[in-house]
Specification:
By secondary structure, this protein is of the alpha/beta class. The chain is built from 8 helices and 15 strands.
Length: 313
């Protein structure tokens, strides 16, 4: 079976209108690539969640259609939504079924985070001896190519650097579940993933099953999280505004002296968050920066016992 791939380069501002038009016309899939990467192999693939926007200023949008789609309708719809597009900005070409699969797979390579943690795509077999490393297997349709977004990398490296043996961790805003799964692979006894997007919960559950850790991962919408939930560590890779609003909730969820990491924070936004988390009972706050993104790490202040461990399910 053949497919038609439509490609165009556009700004992040133009992306929502273009994507909406292509979805209306029956796009089977839409993927986004960093247009500013120097080579195709350096481009990370990113599929935004519901309500999310791309992280790049300029991007390449690739949309896949059945081969019998009306090509003129595609082009006309894009020009209607984006009249500023030049005619040569839109590329159309046919791809065979196997060629399309290979094009996806060829973009993905194993990546190491810290000393022990590796992310492997499903099409590449990890080494047979995994005794000294932790491997997370992910479908290439997620946000992993030959590189990954700095906020995810910062959180993965933090997980690799702390002692998770036998501990319970919360991944707040779990998305694909990669951070929770990585924590389990690194020795955590139990993880809770929290996300307000039902599609993210489904993706996390599917990835946990593929990695053989579904029996140690519990998944909840924020309002469904049990009231007595307490954890030994917490990681949240979301955005600055919800991180600010969630500070009191995180203080309740974390046991005394338990470590935490926050990311999804643009450089310059960390100052307000540092004040907020200090006021909410967090200490030993540290900043790490990669490119334009920041990670805040620290610990809940030592205080009276915050409660029981996470429920085992």
């Amino acid at each position: 079976m053949a497919f038609l791939e439509l490609s165009l380069k556009l700004s992040a501002r133009q992306q929502p209108r273009a994507e909406a038009a292509l979805e209306e016309l029956g796009a089977l899939s839409i993927t986004l690539l960093d247009a500013d990467a120097e080579t195709p192999d350096e481009r990370a693939i990113f599929e935004p969640g519901v309500g999310e926007t791309p992280l790049w200023r300029t991007l390449v949008l690739n949309a896949l259609f059945d081969d019998d789609v009306d090509r003129h309708a595609l082009v006309n719809a894009l020009h209607y939504e984006l009249p500023e597009l030049s005619p040569d900005a839109i590329g159309l070409h046919e791809v065979a079924d196997r060629d399309w699969e290979r094009a996806w797979m060829d973009r993905f390579r194993p990546m190491r985070f810290g000393k022990r943690l590796w992310i492997y795509p499903w099409n590449i077999e990890p080494p047979t001896d995994e005794s000294e490393i932790a491997i997370v297997r992910l479908d290439p349709g997620l946000a992993f190519g030959t590189g990954t977004h700095p906020t995810t990398a910062l959180c993965l490296e933090w997980l690799d650097a702390i002692d998770l043996s036998g501990k319970a961790i919360i991944d707040y805003g779990c998305g694909s579940g990669v951070l929770a799964i990585a924590a389990l692979k690194l020795g955590a006894s139990h993880a809770i993933g929290v996300d307000n997007d039902p599609q993210a919960v489904l993706a996390s559950r599917d990835n946990a099953e593929r990695n053989g850790v579904n029996d140690r991962l519990s998944l909840y919408a924020p309002n469904d999280l049990p009231k007595n939930t307490r954890c030994d560590a917490l990681v949240a890779n979301i955005l600055s505004r919800p991180l600010r609003e969630l500070a009191p909730a995180f203080a309740t969820l974390l046991k005394p002296a338990a470590p935490f990491a926050l990311s999804g924070i643009l450089a310059g936004q960390e100052h307000e968050l540092l004040e907020r988390y200090t006021a909410c009972g967090f200490a030993d706050l540290h900043i790490s920066q990669r490119e334009d993104w920041v990670r805040i790490t620290g610990a809940r202040e030592k205080a009276k016992d915050a409660g029981a461990r996470l429920p085992s399910e």
